[in-house]
Amino acid sequence: MHHLLDPAVLLTGLAVFLARVTDVTLGTIRTISLVHGRMAVAFALGLVEITIWVVVMSAVVARLPAEPVLAVFYALGFASGNVLGIALERRLALGSVILRVISRTRPADMAAAIRGQGHGVTTFQGAGLEGPVTELYIVCRRRCLPAILRTVRALEPDAFCVAEPTADAAAGLSAPRRAAPAEPTGWRAVLKRK
User: Does domain 96-171 sit in CATH 3.40.50.300?
Assistant: First the structure.
């Protein structure tokens, strides 16, 4: 049985730890990719993830009787990979959200400002506890949400906001929309006539 401070055991343990962090992080991102319907990404990540897992698992199981400390490195890598995977997913901000903003004072300004950022906004009139309100309904990429919320807060700090996840297919988004192109001219105009 090797001593815990044996450099070979520590290097092996570090390699097991890093490999587990990598494969569990990939597994977390893969799972989230599946939820968002990104099948090709999930397939590729799953292939890499399971390859790492099989290699690490076979190395640990073969050496575990002589070096039981490897189980600790394995467990620490698993736990750390979960935390890193969630942190990475938050940073990547995959997917879309529906943002509902309830405005009492500046809904028109808010809608115009958000549309100016390239996002679609649909408004609905309603009645709240303290009188008339307007609901702004916005579907956007998660990574765009902080900028939209800053716009909302700058115009109406006490506006009520709720964000909820949505499927990308339902959102039909690829990027914030740009202004519509001008009417076709030349030969394109001829093809557009009916």
Answer: no
